[in-house]
Amino acid sequence: MTAIFILGGARSGKSRRALTIADALPGSRTFIATAQTYDEEMIERVARHRAERDKHWNTVEAPVDLHAAIAGAKVEHDVLLVDCLTLWLSNVMLGGHDVERATRLLLDQMVAPRPGTTLLLVSNEIGMGLVPETPLGRAFRDEQGRLNQRVAALADRVEFVAAGLPLTLKG
Predict the structure, then answer these.
(1) What is the largest CA-CA distance in the chain?
(2) Measured on CA atoms in the order 73, 79, 83, 85, is the torsion positive or negative?
């Protein structure tokens, strides 16, 4: 399996970049969504993201059990796009789940072989801003930084997107 990690700031173009890469690859596609819709704005945001994908995309919702969604999707599909690890981590932390265990299960799926499969993972780079005011905010920033480092270490290719422009960091 080939793993491509795409990160950037909010509204940087990272999701569009991931879709562009995925759409250029052959085979069947699964979009693994980690967002949860708690309010009208988020419902509209998810609807806009769905509209960006054509009918050839299968969609799986995995707000917490991301490793299981990846394991199941790679059995049937060639291209998997996870958007995004930031929302997933937030769901894991706010749900009181074991972050280390959840991260380990995710990383295990990144290296689990299935020749010909491409896994694209999208994440926010949140460590370039101000130090959060609250202990939860600081804990989240720290966990997100550690998660991004671990995913990047295993990925075959890593891109950073700013202003819609990709910069290759690895691969």
Answers:
(1) 45
(2) positive
Residue reference for tokens 């609807």: 47
Classify residue 115 as exposed, middle or buried by CB count within 10 Å of its CB (0-12, 13-18, 19+).
Answer: exposed
pLDDT in tens, 36-95: 887 888 888 878 877 777 788 999 999 999 999 999 999 999 999 999 999 999 999 999
Name which CATH class applies to 2-170.
alpha beta
Confidence of residue 164 (pLDDT cuts 50, 70, 90): very high
Alpha-helix residue ranges (DSSP H) falling in the chain = 14-23, 40-52, 66-76, 85-94, 99-111, 135-154
Q: What's the predicted TM-score (pTM) here? A: 0.94
The closest of 85, 81, 6, 19 to 51, measured between CA atoms, is 19
* Active-site annotation holds for 56: no
Q: Residue 147 in contact with residue 123, Cβ under 8 Å?
A: yes
Contact 122, 81 (CB under 8 A): yes
Q: Which of 49, 56, 67, 77 is catalytic?
A: 49
